Each structure stands twice: as structure tokens, then as C-alpha cells.
Amino acid sequence: MNMESLPGGGGSGPNATNGSVPPALPFADGAAAATAVVLGLLTVLTALINAAVIGAICTTRKLRLPANYLICSLAVTDFLVALLVMPVSILYMTTEAWTLGRVACELWLSLDMTCCTCSILHLCVIALDRYWAITKAIAYARKRSARRAAAMVAAVWVISVFISMPPLFWRQRPGGGGGGGLHRCVIEHDHLGYTIYSTVGAFYIPMAVILILYYRIYAAAKTLYQKRGGSARHLSGRSAGSQNSAERCRSDRCRVAHTFCASDPSNSETAAEKPDADGGETDADGQDEKNQICTSRERKAARILGLILGAFIVCWLPFFLKEVLVGLRVVRPSPAVSDFLTWLGYVNSLVNPLLYTSFNDDFKAAFKKLLGRKEHA
């Protein structure tokens, strides 16, 4: 989300030039070339990994679940960031001047803000989906459909457009359509109200929602484990009632853990819910082993939760803090710092598909299947 600019208008930045001063030559030194190579590799990786997630969900029937539709939509959004936003940013950084014209500048800035905002809001709706799945499991299971997922995705895109499009109504750029006098392409911080509106809507509110939802998911999981975990370890399999209670307890505990992975519980919980071969008698050792499986999944879910929240905050919080401080004219960051923080946010589009799919066995199997097809071809 390339919003870097110094307060006070369009002609004072370090990249600003007039018509008589030629822009810097591309790749003037080795550092610029090395930067372009590294950023190019990040862009390619982001595109490939998100394309793999999209392909896995589209080609694997087992993954065609409403929760995974949200992940697929997130992957599409992050793929658009890698395809439409990151390459242009690399060109702009290495040439140190905008050479594509005014129309391309407006289009790129709008795509940058829209896609990055949409990616962040996707994390918000995924958290909301998982919160409903764990706290209102039975009621939400009836409502959790592809149509509902599509409505959530549509709402995310509409909100993103409303956040990113207002500057089109007041931005004035020199040089006309050919870009003869345009050598900078940044969003100016000359509207403090819009800076606050965009940063709050694109990041601070979604961050607060995500933190609250995942905290409540963790609290609900912890309560469920405390209420039913102890009793499950001491239940005997001698009576049908106690056996059913134990099975229900294990099912609930594992459902909590799998909520974090957006997985299909029917496949992954087989080991934990499979009845005894002896027909009805469940010994203490077997019961303890099954409880250890769910406890292990609980720890795994907690790790996933920490990684999701940590990656999101580390990637985007520095950028949006800088945006607010620049808008308030508190700081005046260098272009290098602004570019670094912008790309730190872009890296979240690479991290998202790794975090939301790497811990899911069904996704791993689908990725192996895709790789097998490519090798065969």
C-alpha cells in the first residue's frame, strides 16, 4: 500500500523533479539491482504460493468448504497484489521516478490501496467465520454456506473500494495523460481527515476486531477444555452413556483445535473419535492417549493463533503507524524507510497462504497432488 509522501504537497519530496531534470537512470548501482532481484523473488514466490492455494481448492473436492472459500478469496486478493502492485513498485523504486504517466499512476495507487485493504479485511472475516464456528457451532453450521461466504467476500470488496477511492476525487497531478512532467506517484498526505479515515478503516478497526475475536475464540476453547477435559480422562467405557459423553467431549475439544485450521473435522478427527475394536470397553490407557491427541491439537491451535496474529501485526502495524505520524506531520521518513515499511506490508501477502494452509493436512495432500501433476506433465 504505497501511501508514502511528505506532508505539504506534491513537489517537495526527494523523488520530485521538474521537466528539465532527467530521472535517475535505472539500476545506477549494484544496490538497486540487488534490491530489484530480492523484491522480484518475493513477488514471484507470492504469486506462485497463492496460485497454488487457489489451484488446490479448485481441484480438490475435499477442500470445497465455505471456510476454505474465504481462504481462496484471500489467496486471489494476495495474488492480485503480487501481479498488479508489487512489480510496479519494484520498477518505481529502482528507477526512482515515475515514467508510466498520470492514468497509470492513478490506477496503480487505487489498485494498491484496494487490494491491500481487501487482504486485511479478509483476515477479519476469516476470524469472524471461525468465531461463529466455535461459539455457535450448531446454529452456524446450518448457515455456513457458499452463498454466505460469497456475501462476506462481496462486503469486503465494497468496503475496500469505499476506503481507497475517495482520493480520486481531489488528486491533481501534473503532466496530463502522457506523464511528461510527472515523476512522482504517491498518495499525498494533504488531507488529514482522509489519512485518519483510511488508516482506521483499513487497519486499526480490523486489527481490533481480529484481536477481540481470536481472544474470544481462545477463551471459548479454554473454557471448553476446562469443563470437559477433566471428566473425559476419568470416564469409563463400561456404560453407553459414559462412552457417548467421552466421545462428545473429544469431538468438542478437537473441533476447537480444527477451527484454527479451517479443516474438515470429519477427516482429521477420525483417530480421536474411532470406537474401540473391542466393541464397548475403553481402557484408561486408550482414553489417555486420545486425550493427549486433543491436547496436542490444542497446543497446535494456540501456536497457529500466535503466528497469525504476530505476522499480521508485524507486517502492517509499522506501516500504518508511520502513515498516521506522517499525516499528523510528526515524522518525515526517508524514501528508503517508507519503501521498507511498504514492502513489509506486501510480505503479508506471502505469509498469509503459508499460515492459513501449511498446518492443514488436506491442503498438504492437495499441494502434493498438484506437484505430482506438474511433474507428470
TrEMBL record:
Q: Which PROSITE patterns match?
A: G_PROTEIN_RECEP_F1_1, G_PROTEIN_RECEP_F1_2
Q: Which InterPro entries match?
A: GPCR_Rhodpsn, GPCR_Rhodpsn_7TM
Where are the bilayer-spanning segments?
A: 31-57, 69-95, 107-128, 149-170, 196-218, 301-320, 340-359
Annotated membrane topology is: Multi-pass membrane protein
An MF annotation (GO) of this entry = G protein-coupled receptor activity
Cellular component GO terms, alphabetically? Answer: plasma membrane
Record region (Disordered): 264-292
GO biological process assignments: adenylate cyclase-activating adrenergic receptor signaling pathway; positive regulation of MAPK cascade
Major place of localization?
membrane
Q: Does the record bear ATP-binding in its keywords?
A: no
- What Gene3D superfamilies does this protein map onto? Rhodopsin 7-helix transmembrane proteins
The residues covered by the G-protein coupled receptors family 1 profile domain are 49-356
Superkingdom:
Eukaryota
Q: Which UniProt keywords apply?
A: Cell membrane, G-protein coupled receptor, Membrane, Receptor, Transducer, Transmembrane, Transmembrane helix
Q: Where in the cell is it found?
A: Cell membrane
Q: Which family does it belong to?
A: Belongs to the G-protein coupled receptor 1 family.
Listed name of the protein = 5-hydroxytryptamine receptor 1E
